[in-house]
Amino acid sequence: QIADPETCDRMYESLVRIHTNYYKNKYPRLKDTNFTGVTVEDCKMILATDILKQMEDMKKGTWKKLREKFYAKKPEEDSK
């Protein structure tokens, strides 16, 4: 048994609206941009490249990371 059927019905209707994208369809966006003006595709591309860089760093071995860290300077910079 449900203690408060009226509250349960309101919650169910709210979940149905969320599931069916009721407000997205009721108030469609004119453009798929955000406040910066960047499109969704551009955001996905940026995020994808950042994640790829992070994954490449994770794949590197410890010695390779240390070598890159200590040998980041070019020899010309040391002589100056």
Automatic annotation (TrEMBL):
GO biological process assignments: mitochondrial respiratory chain complex III assembly
Top-level taxonomic group: Eukaryota
Primary subcellular site in the record, as a coarse category: mitochondrion
Keywords: Mitochondrion, Mitochondrion nucleoid, Transit peptide
Compartments it resides in: Mitochondrion matrix, Mitochondrion nucleoid
Lineage, top ranks: Eukaryota, Metazoa, Chordata, Craniata, Vertebrata
InterPro entries (alphabetical): UQCC2
Keyword NADP: no
Annotated GO CC locations: mitochondrial nucleoid
PANTHER family reported in the protein's UniProt record: UBIQUINOL-CYTOCHROME-C REDUCTASE COMPLEX ASSEMBLY FACTOR 2 (PTHR34260:SF1)
Name of this protein: Mitochondrial nucleoid factor 1
UniProt cross-references to Pfam families, sorted A to Z: UQCC2_CBP6
Protein's UniProt keywords contain Amino-acid biosynthesis: no
